[in-house]
Amino acid sequence: MTSPPARPRLRSHVLARRHLANGRELVVLYDSERLRNHRASERTWLVLNGMDGTRDVDGLVAFATSHGATVGAEEVRDLVQDLANEEMIADGIDLSPERPSVAPPSADDAPRAVLALPDFALDCDGQGTCCRFYPSIAFSALDAARARAARPEVLEGGNDAARVFLPLFGRDPRAHAVSLVDGRCAYLASDLGCTIHSVAGAGQKPLGCRTYPARFVDDGEHVRVSPWPECRCVLQSGALGSTSQGEPLVSPSVTSTRELDPAFHVERLPPTIAVAPGKTAERAELAAWSRAVFDAPVKDAIASLVALAESLEAHGLDVDASRASLIDPPSPDAGVFAAAAAAFMPRIARLAAEDWRAPNDMVRMTATALESACLLLESLALDLLASPPAHAEAERFYVKDLLFGHHAVHRQGLHPMSVLLFDRAFRVVLGRALGIVANVADLHDPAFQMPLALVDATMRGYGVNAYVQDLALSPAQAR
Questions:
Q1: Cα angle value 299/301/302 (rounded, 5°)
Q2: What burial letters (b/e) apply to 412-429, b meaning 16+ CB within 10 Å?
């Protein structure tokens, strides 16, 4: 048993999110480091909201009482002990700076040319998949004020901002996470349209919603703009290529980072890239390699990604070897993903077991179906690898997007590219299995028409991609 702090505060990696699930109001504390959650009633949240590092148990009782909740000291002590055991709270005021110190100017701060993924235009299907899947939908303070003004009746947010928004991180008032109703943004209508958009116009939507699914990555030469492949419309648009009737991710008039909205988040790749176990490369080498292999025709997404992962292990960023692995890869063995499936299964099972979610919560439906897909993979691995895929062009686009946008590079270097390429191959085969499960289970939601996108969204949105920590460092050893 962990000794409880005298004046508790929620740790910075514990994120509070308000949910209305099955008509029941609750606040979920997401531990973003340990990938666990703790559910609290509205009454308990009044106590938790007072945990800022300045109040002891008696102070928390007084705080909750002043906000209309009747609680006893023993009940609060038990709550503090439970949270201490789960390592969700610390003692005293957090004295770390809210903002990181400003680094001195460097060559990395110089303007970059903006380079968008060729032949891609997003034709949004308007089905709101991105608005009803992620655990956090971010609003700036101004975004939140606009939303409350446009739709004051939503969760009575016009009168009480805390009913519809909680801080995105800690107690920082500058960014907010919107409440979720059965897993969906509170401002999403029953027809899956955005009510902020319909009332106030597209320009009043949150910045993140207006820029999604664009991802901006600085590789030292360019800022590359490519989509997160986590929505059906992204993969469908990508499969169409230059024939798509959609809109570009960034205006063609934007050619330099000087012209980007400063509010856009631009990821910066590290100077040294982990390519494979024991192999690294400079960032400039990665950029050159990406340019050289991007146009290689992909025969089969799964086979090509597995072969490319093994090529990086054997040859590093050798262009000829990489292109050969993409163009003419050997067929993977039936058991190639056995270790990945074994590592993935307990993580997706935990997500599927979150029965506090409504039955129509997209996350619950997807996690439950993915659990079945993982079981299916054990018995039908050879068929899934050998049969013609239902979404071959979308899978090929997935590989192109990955290569162009540097999606297989871990920003902190925790995993080498070879492991993350192998992970992407596993995602593709899991997407094929999910498609079969969706058909058998009559899952009619449009999102299931492009199952690979749901796999990717689940991996990133709910930390299930941490399964790679349980794999051997080498894709070859992971077999």
A1: 115
A2: eeebbbbbbbbbbbbbbb
Q: Does any domain span residue 100?
A: no
Q: Among the listed ranges 7-11, 357-361, 375-379, which one has the minimum average pLDDT value? A: 375-379
| pTM of the predicted model over 0.90 | yes
CA dihedral sign of residues 182, 373, 441, 387: positive
Burial of 362 (0-12, 13-18, 19+ CB in 10 A): buried
Handedness of CA 120, 121, 123, 127 (dihedral sign): positive
Spacing of C-alpha 270 from chain mean position: 20
Residue 226 lies in a domain: yes
Regarding whether 314 and 436 lie in a shared domain, the answer is: yes
> Where would I find the H helices in 328-391?
338-352, 362-386
Binned at pLDDT 50, 70 and 90, residue 97 comes out as low
Rounded CA-CA distance 296/322 in Å is: 9
How many domains are contained in the chain? Answer: 3
Same domain (yes/no): 56, 192:
no
N-terminal to C-terminal alpha carbon distance within the chain: 39
Q: Is residue 386 part of a domain?
A: yes
Whether residue 177 contacts residue 166, with contact meaning beta carbons closer than 8 Å, is answered with yes
Residue reference for tokens 């063995």: 333
